[in-house]
Amino acid sequence: MVDVAMSGPRGAKPRPIVSPRNIIVYGLLILVSMYYLLPLWVMIVTSLKGMPEIRLGNIFAPPVEVTFEPWVKAWATACTGLNCDGLSRGFWNSVRILVPSVLLSIAVASVNGYALVNWKFKGSEVFFTILIFGAFIPYQVMLYPIVILLREAGLYGGLSGLVLVHTVFGMPILTLLFRNYFVSLPEELFKAARIDGAGFWQIYFRIMLPMSLPIFVVAIILQVTGIWNDFLFGVVYTRPDYYPMTVQLNNIVNSVQGVKEYNVNMAATLLTGAVPLIVYFLSGRLFVRGIAAGAVKG
């Protein structure tokens, strides 16, 4: 006991906080962060300036006099073609598209992944291969055929058709995510539930769902980001009255009439990108947990 006390503390020597390695690592991280945050800074400060101050040319300087008028105009009075109601109409259209698309695609894909893992049927692997193959087909190839299908079904030009398109196109990658996650769960739980007499839906709702919160968050973030930021499907499959927020933003930013109001354009861009950012920041930790728990494992 005396020898141990006299020999002093054992273990790895603590690393100094300030070292050449830490300076290089944190210095590079700071430089990369500044590189990606600089455009955001320019957008924010520009959106808070009036046009006379913007014309002075110093885009990096904070506003001398803060004004929220560009934000109000971008939301309520900016012209998008013949309509001058800003992004507000496009925002509610995007919400009406987003909510059912996310709920339907995640509900169907989660059941698909669960069935492919625990209730395999004849030809399930072929079905899964075909489904995954669909994730690699370029969207542009299927634009016109889908237009014909929606037209024949009477869904072209409305929100229901666009919801259906987003649901179908989200199916391959979401099914892959849920399948790989359910594979990582202990198979003994499923077998024990089967021995106790639980059926397909009982196991799904009582066992799989409570254990799958992280992967559901991953799926929600992916779908919210993809659907909310979509421009191509929104402009092709809907009419002007149902254009989502991204299409409205394009009409504001690329308008060729009147004076180019950069502060309004920046405010409109920030408003359009706010929803995916809020969703990610609120659930970022669960997103990382879902990825680490098997979302990308084969």
In the CATH hierarchy, the third-tier topology of the largest domain is known as: MetI-like fold
What is the rounded Rg?
26 Å
What gross morphology would you assign? flat
Question: Which series of helices and strands comes N to C?
Answer: HHHHHHHHHHHHHH
What can be said about the biggest beta sheet?
none
Characterization of the model:
The protein is mainly alpha-helical and 298 residues long. It has 2 domains: 66 residues, no CATH class; 208 residues, MetI-like fold, CATH 1.10.3720. The chain has 14 helices and no strands. The longest helix is centred in the last third of the chain and has 34 residues.
Features:
298 residues, mainly alpha, MetI-like fold, 2 domains, 14 helices, 71% helix, flat
Secondary-structure topology with pairs:
Elements: H1 2-7, H2 20-47, H3 51-54, H4 69-76, H5 88-118, H6 124-133, H7 139-153, H8 159-184, H9 187-195, H10 200-208, H11 213-228, H12 232-237, H13 245-253, H14 262-295
Short description:
This protein has 298 residues and is an all-alpha fold. It has helices at residues 2-7, 20-47, 51-54, 69-76, 88-118, 124-133, 139-153, 159-184, 187-195, 200-208, 213-228, 232-237, 245-253, 262-295.
